[in-house]
Amino acid sequence: MTDTQAVAAARDLLHRARRVLVLTGAGISAECGVPTFRGPGGLWKRHRPEELATPEAFRRDPRLVWEWYVWRRELVSSCEPGPAHHALAGWLGRRSGSARLVTQNVDGLHARAQREWAAAQGDAPDALGAGRPVELHGALFRVRCTACRRETEHRGTVDASSDATLPRCSDCGALLRPAVVWFGEMLPAEALDEAIRWARAADVALVVGTSALVHPAASLPILVLERGGGLVEVNPEPSPLTPRAAVSIRAPAGTALPVLLGTGELPGVKGG
Ligand code: OAD
Q: Is 137 in the active site?
């Protein structure tokens, strides 16, 4: 398949689909400056997950774990949604409820792009409602109480210079933790249920920028395939899902999605 044929085939599949499940991973934010996990320079190449992203690590040294999340929050705060986030936000808006975005990303860039799109349409920028992304692995700018488990948005500064300065629950005074999923933890039940519900109802899965190594997220497109649905993958590298893809677009998301989901030319995209 040539590049143009691949994109035309993917566009056709998406156009004919009654319901689309979109699954994104760290690759969609890579061009915005947010590091991926497993690629060159990836977070898990530089840091040991068991020291920073497990409940045991947090119990052992909450200050160290918070320090890492403060660094990630600062990094993401300096990034903007890119052309891939914007193209997806516009396309989701135009599909008005017949596509659902499920992301493994905790950076909040999808929601920012969607709010910008909504605002440009004259909607209240926070009126995403049922269109908001399903955040399977939590969110960097949310916190959860380690005792009462109350979860809230948290964009304020976190002073991780000592245990005594770490953020505490305004209700019960216990330590707050980032509301992200750590290794060995369950995914948020509501988000997972919603993602599975969409995967079971979708006739096409559009999978962008994920190594598809982490389950249950990587199983969602398989649920779509099992019902006879099609799979479109956008990733410069192959993944375990590639052999099952109807169309693989081997290009960065920022190049591919504006063309796939909008209108325009597709320079230098290899299809297969
Ligand atoms: P990974 O770092 O495992 O994979 C990133 C994927 O993005 C790779 O397949 C790259 O080839 C691809 N990629 C890189 N640049 C890209 C670009 N410009 N456009 C499109 N694709 C690109 O990240 P995830 O698959 O998201 O979990 O990782 C899944 C989970 O593993 C994360 O959510 C995180 C991690 O442990 C938790 O923290 C719970």
A: yes
Please check whether residue 232 is in contact with residue 203, taking contact to mean a CB–CB distance below 8 angstroms.
Answer: no
Each residue's pLDDT tens digit, 162-199: 999 999 999 999 999 999 999 999 999 999 999 999 99
Tokens 């693989």 belong to which residue? Answer: 248
Q: Does 137 contact ligand 1 (Cβ within 6 A)?
A: yes
Q: Whose CA is nearest to atom 32 of ligand 1?
A: 104
User: Could you give the count of Cα atoms lying within 13 Å of 173 in the half-sphere of its Cβ?
Assistant: 1
78 or 128, which is more confident: 78
The structure's pTM equals 0.95
The predicted structure's pLDDT at residue 271: 46
pLDDT of res. 272: 46
| Rg value, the chain, Cα | 19
Neighbours of 117 (CB within 10 A): 24
- CA of 215 from ligand 1 middle (Å) equals 13
Question: Is residue 164 within 8 Å of residue 155, measured between CB atoms?
Answer: no
The pair phi, psi for residue 106, each rounded to 5°, is -105, 5
Q: Is the minimum distance from the CB of 31 to ligand 1 under 6 angstroms?
A: yes
Q: What per-residue confidence (pLDDT) applies to 142? A: 98
Name the residue with the closest Cα to ligand 1, atom 9.
211
Buried b (16+ CB within 10 A) or exposed e, 207-222: bbbbbbebeebbebbb
How many Å apart are CA 1 and CA 247, to the nearest integer? 9
